[in-house]
Backbone:
């Protein structure tokens, strides 16, 4: 129905806002509106028409929510139904650092109803160059507490659940089970492999990003679906500890972490809304120095120890003594 009402005269001739306020047929027309249909209106008149349209399109949302999420709801791929999905969604963000910070903030602004934040670390001064969920006054505080306070200032609709604990083989499965989607912003290989394996066994979608220096990577993993790969299909095993970079020696341009964390938020929202093309089965690579993006296909590995034809990883017990290299992403 988009584009049906394109001008003031045409719109006024088609809809009498007072006489047809409760007309279901009009409501169905309004649901098909996109931002283009509001172009003829300016200023306060545009806002009044948008709120009136959105109230009829999704009456279960409050007036404040209709106003807050109006730019979402006029998108055909979102609408009132999609916004309701976001408000009902539960997303676990592992790591409240350089990737997790923009990810958490954009999920909160979008109205994702429940955001779990798992991080046992405290805010340090060196974090603030890229970890935008924290402020100078937060130095020394738990990152989970700092992120929760920041989200409260952005959107009171969002419930933040703080998990100020290290992710281990003992708690990973139960923690992930409480959420619909997991977003990995961790900074070490051991945690990344644990998250991947726990999401596979729990049947949870994993949206993973990584960043170091001027480069970033992004992928979505849904190996519980036929022919789609897991993280181990791309990276079978962690690298030897002696080859892994040291966190204090590996730098990262803060804005690159912001780019990748924001893209990660986009993919999480797409998965909740079932909008567009999933990143599952693909790897996005970003080179900030050349300002280039490229995407490569990632097939399922038949020999994968986790999701292959003859798996040898049958539970999370292999992670019980895992230490692994300290730094992966500089997040």
Residues:
């Amino acid at each position: 129905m988009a584009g049906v009402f394109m001008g003031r005269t045409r719109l006024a001739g088609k809809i009498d806002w007072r006489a047809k306020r409760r007309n279901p047929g009009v409501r169905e027309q309004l649901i098909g509106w996109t931002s283009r249909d509001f172009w003829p209106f300016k200023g306060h008149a545009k806002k009044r028409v948008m709120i009136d349209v959105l109230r009829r399109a999704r009456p279960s949302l409050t007036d404040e929510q209709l106003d807050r999420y109006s730019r979402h709801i006029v998108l055909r791929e979102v609408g009132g139904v999609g916004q309701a999905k976001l408000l009902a969604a539960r997303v676990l963000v592992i790591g409240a650092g350089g990737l997790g910070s923009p990810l958490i903030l954009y999920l909160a602004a979008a109205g994702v109803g429940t955001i779990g934040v798992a991080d046992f670390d405290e805010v340090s001064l060196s974090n603030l160059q890229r970890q935008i969920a924290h402020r100078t006054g937060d130095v020394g505080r738990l990152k989970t507490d700092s992120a929760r306070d920041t989200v409260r200032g952005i959107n009171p609709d969002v419930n933040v659940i703080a998990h100020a604990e290290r992710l281990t083989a003992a708690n990973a499965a139960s923690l992930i089970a409480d959420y619909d989607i997991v977003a990995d912003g961790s900074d070490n290989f051991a945690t990344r492999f644990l998250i991947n394996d726990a999401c596979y066994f729990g049947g949870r979608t994993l949206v993973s990003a990584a960043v170091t220096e001027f480069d970033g990577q992004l992928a979505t993993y849904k190996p519980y679906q036929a022919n789609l790969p897991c993280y181990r299909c791309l990276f079978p095993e962690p690298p030897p500890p002696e080859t892994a970079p040291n966190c204090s020696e590996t730098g990262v341009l803060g804005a690159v972490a912001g780019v990748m964390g924001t893209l990660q938020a986009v993919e999480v929202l797409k998965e909740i809304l079932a909008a567009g093309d999933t990143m599952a089965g693909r790897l996005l690579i970003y080179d900030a120095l050349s300002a280039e993006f490229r995407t490569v296909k990632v097939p399922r590995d038949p020999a994968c120890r986790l999701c292959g034809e003859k798996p040898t990883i049958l539970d999370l017990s292999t992670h019980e003594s895992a230490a692994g290299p300290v730094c992966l992403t500089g997040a």
Observations:
- The domain at 89-319 is CATH 3.40.50.720 (Rossmann fold).
- Strands lie at 90-94, 114-118, 159-163, 181-184, 205-212, 215-221, 282-287, 292-297.
- The CA atoms of residues 227 and 300 lie 6 Å apart.
- Confidence is low (pLDDT under 50) at residues 1-41.
